[in-house]
Amino acid sequence: MNIAKFPRVSFAHLPTPLEPMKRLTAVLGGPRLWIKRDDCTGLSTGGNKTRKLEFLMAEAVSLGADTIITQGATQSNHARQTAAAAAKLGLACHILLEDRTGSQDESYNLNGNVLLDRLHGATVSKRSGGVDMQAQMEALADDLKLDGKKPYVIPGGGSNAVGALGYVNAALEIVYQASSMGLNIATLVHATGSAGTQAGLVAGFKALGGQVPVLGIGVRAPKEKQENNVFDLAQRTAQHMGLGNIIKRADVVANCDYVGGGYGVPTAGMVDAVTLLARTEGILLDPVYSGKGMDGLVDLIRKGHFDKSSDVVFLHTGGSAALFAYPDAFSLYGYQ
Ligand SMILES: *Cc1c(COP(=O)(O)O)cnc(C)c1O
Q: Are 294 and 317 in contact (CB under 8 A)?
């Protein structure tokens, strides 16, 4: 596997730390819990999209693009990291935000990531929930081309075979870090949405011999659909790297029992998990992804899903900027 052959720009603070969560481990009575701090990738409060954008933005630059277009939900962390990356490269950025929740809340619509998108100078426009966002981006790209611009369209979440290379690279980083620490990872757990993170990790670990099982905790789609999305993208990523058909359907495992009322809709378990991490480890999760991912991890631990003497790593994919869009969720469930 030769990832160095793909063009890449350097945005992220790498390697991100891989740290023990001693107080959380004690509270739950094992397994030994670790956290891979991709909330610390550095760009505009960090997050997992920055690793994908290192490859996507390099492709945009190599194609001579002067304008970036992407899309996401209102509180998209991907949109915010793309706006920051475009600013760093001096490119224009257009963000289309899909109203998936229908919330009229002022914080949800204007604070958190939306505030930061605008601060980074992106042009932000909204679309109603359920529209074909890819088609909306392509229509905007056509309009911009008529004005003489050279747009580059990044899919939602930066999840295609180019973006997923960021998580192939993360798999290399994790294997290297774990082996230098003498850490035998039983499972790596993280929140899975647009599938690029899990697809890249699965492809990367597989290319390295498949020693780290990955468990995605879903935040939107049902299990079968989520696993199929990840499997499809993992296969395309492996093919993009010239590795052929190395991915098996059984390499892709997601648990989608923690979505609750839908994408971006708070759950009691999410609020408990975000609060637990804030109070045991001083770490900020987010309401849409990592909070639901941690809810899944904690619940599965309590149900005895993991061997108590094993080492389990939670990949923190970032997103804490979205906390400021959800202040009411915490008071609703009895926290300040
Ligand atoms: C996008 C995102 C995820 C999910 O990653 P995908 O590659 O879209 O599956 C998880 N956590 C956070 C904070 C995110 O912004």
A: no
Residue type for position 278 = A
For 171-223, write each residue's pLDDT tens digit: 999 999 999 999 999 999 999 999 999 999 999 999 999 889 999 999 999 99
Indicate which residue of 44, 76, 194, 290 is catalytic.
76
Contact yes or no for 110/319 (Cβ under 8 A):
no
Say how far apart CA 311 and CA 19 lie, in whole Å. Answer: 12
Q: How far apart are CA 143 and CA 164, in angstroms?
A: 28
* Beta-carbon count within 10 A of 323 CB: 22
Full-model pTM = 0.98
Residue 229, Ramachandran bin (φ over 0: left; ψ between -120 and 50: alpha; else beta): alpha
Q: Is 76 a catalytic residue?
A: yes
Digit-coded pLDDT (tens) for 41-65: 999 999 999 999 999 999 999 999 9
289 Cα nearest atom in ligand 1? 11
CB 159 near ligand 1, within 6 Å: yes
Provide the 3-class DSSP secondary structure of residue 253.
strand
Q: 148 alpha carbon to ligand 1 midpoint, in Å?
A: 33
The Å distance, Cα 196 to ligand 1 centre, comes to: 8
Q: Are 30 and 309 in contact (CB under 8 A)?
A: yes
Expressed in angstroms and rounded, the spacing between residue 275 Cα and the centre of ligand 1 is 20
Ligand 1 within 6 A of CB of 323: no
State which ligand 1 atom lies nearest to the alpha carbon of 319: 13
Block residue for tokens 């706006």: 83
